[in-house]
## 1
Amino acid sequence: MMVDRRTVMAGAAALPLADGSSAPEGSLPQDRYERGLAQLRAISGSQGAAVVESLRDIAPDLGRYIVEFAYGDVFARPGLDVKTRELMTVAALTAMGTAAPQLKVHMRAALRVGASRQEIVETVMQMIPYAGFPAALNAIGTARDAFAAE
């Protein structure tokens, strides 16, 4: 995946993408979107892009925010690998207990970036003391669906 580097600001640091390439930090908004879209595709494959596309007719700005902020800014930050970021996302969505569709997307993304089924299940299990058994049971059901889809 290529990220347009023509609009990179002088002296900007490169941000690692999930596919091993890098994207510019401190770039203009279009680069931010392109960096986020590249990161989203590297992590979620076509599934993540389909979520963004499904918003085009009703809330295109929401899709843009997801791409630019969540993936272009947060997921592209240095300091944590994408597998760790995905397992953390699985933990947060499990604890919320109200985001089963998003949890399934991120469980599948976690598998895609190298997490094992056992790591995903253990992440859910770790949430029991904090989110409770109902949230964990719901997340395990979502994991079953996510694993079956792979």
## 2
Amino acid sequence: MKIRKAKLSDIKDIAYVQVKSWETTYPGLLPDEVIKSRTVESRTKKLTEFWPDLETSTKRCVLVAETKEGKIVGFVVGGRSFDNNLSYEGEVYSIYIIKEYQNKGLGTTLMKEAVKYLVNLGFKTMIIWVLKGNKQASLFYEKLGGIVKERKMHNIEGKEYPINGFVWEDISNF
């Protein structure tokens, strides 16, 4: 498996990974219509709008996991924390891996690479937000040393859902 910086030409594949991950991760946590509303086309459009400077930005990193055959099966996005009201400098905004590639160490590898980027920016602390009830992700972040220290509501498709903030107070030895 190769981890590399994402290119603009990867956005549709990244959108595919995100959509497929939502389909396998969020049933029972989010309404079916919310999950089904995420299509590869809609996410490709949204990500293209979010990341016009994908290849040149120094404010965020988007890394993809690519098989030997060149198929993107996971990605991670990180940068400066979006929430200025909290004291955490860095944030992993999202990490998604296609189900068949989960539980093989890929998530840990992606997280470590994202944290390297945050450390290189001079950040010492980090947060990642997880939908409450997402036990698999919560166990994963706990295993990596994250501790739930924050809670808030997050708007998805016009409805509020509780999310937990997993925090690392020192990412220098992640």
